[in-house]
Amino acid sequence: MKEIGGYFGIELSQYRREYHTGSARYNTFRSALCDLLANSNYSEIYMPYFNCPDVEEKIRIEFPELVIINYEVDNNLEPINSDGSKLDWRLLDQRSLFYYVNYFGLKSNFIESELDNCLIDNAHSFFSKPVKNNHTIYSARKFFGVPDGAYLSTSLKLSDDLDEHDCRNAFSHLLGRQAINARKYYHKYMENEKTLAHANVRSMSKLSQTILSSIDYELVRSKRVDNFYYLHSKLEPINLLSDLISDSCHSLNFSPLSYPLLLKGKGEIIRKFLIDNGIYVPSLWRRFIERDEPRCEFKNIIHIPIDQRYCLKDMKQVLGVLKSVIKEI
Ligand SMILES: Cc1ncc(COP(=O)(O)O)c(C=O)c1O
Asked: Which of 129, 169, 226, 262 has minimal Cβ neighbours within 10 Å of its Cβ?
């Protein structure tokens, strides 16, 4: 029976709706992928080298019989064979799953026009709608302050009896960041990430679902886009990813993860300088960076935060810091 009265819990508006209604809910992207694989009969999966290594590791552990074939991407972040020719996933048979990452949220146009019967990793592109005939997975933690949360859109029948993820001990980093600062609670964030890496396949916690039902998504999206375009208007002439960005930024529901900045050879120095000045630019993906991987130029991309917490004044501040290390701006 529902409890009536007593003390209050956290007050969150539940009068809005989640963005991905109609999708299955999970604790993590990796869980969604595991459930998809458990409910299908793929015998092999094509995965890009350039990806979050935790995803591949999880599959290797949970599905040891599944054959993993790695592929590379070209300078437009599109799939190629080892000889540099375009990789044609249409030639794969029914039991092969082709996994493609919507890198930094910049590849939605490519996905919409080219991909069919594939798995789209939209961990970097929360606002992109699922594309018909593909399986699509989203992870909420990169876009919102939630302890867990992922969505899977597919026509496959999935498990409907999953236990709920227990997130009661996973709020310290979120509350600590709000009350004090991010630096002090970073270890708590890492603790939660470690817990999630080992978590079983679970449905999204009710708390995350409640938080995700309280967000003004249109406001979030427009703030991100405004910040992105402002930075791009200033950094376009020196950003080696400018062509890629111009091709991508007109897609419907465009709302990228960050502003990706690639400069000749200086990535690591600038990244460190920004962090020392309190501008936290993540490295995607640390373990990929440490390995000797072929697409090494992508290691130097600086991911400048453009999310809903910030406005143009903050973007100007970021540019000011960048100006002190990059003469060309
Ligand atoms: C592109 C991409 N896909 C998937 C994941 C895994 O998401 P989760 O931690 O929700 O399993 C990540 C995590 O960093 C990612 O960057």
From this structure: 169
Q: Which pLDDT score, from 0 to 100, does residue 287 have?
A: 65
Other CB atoms within 10 Å distance of the CB of residue 72: 16
Handedness of CA 260, 245, 73, 90 (dihedral sign): positive
Nearest residue (by CA) to ligand 1, atom 3, is 123
Atom of ligand 1 nearest to the CA of 149: 10
- Is the distance from the beta carbon of residue 55 to the nearest atom of ligand 1 less than 6 Å? yes
Residue 143 Cβ < 6 Å to ligand 1: no
Please give the helix or strand (H or E) that residue 73 lies within, else none: strand 67-73
What averages of pLDDT result for each successive group of 10 residues across the chain (329 residues)?
84 86 97 98 95 94 97 92 92 95 94 94 96 96 97 96 94 92 93 95 96 95 95 95 88 86 84 91 74 68 94 96 86
Question: Which pair of tokens denotes residue 172?
Answer: 């310290």
Give the Å distance between the CA of 104 and the centre of ligand 1.
Answer: 12
CB 159 within 8 Å of CB 38: yes
The reply to whether ligand 1 has any atom less than 6 angstroms from the CB of 174 is no
Note whether 59 and 37 are within 8 A (CB): yes
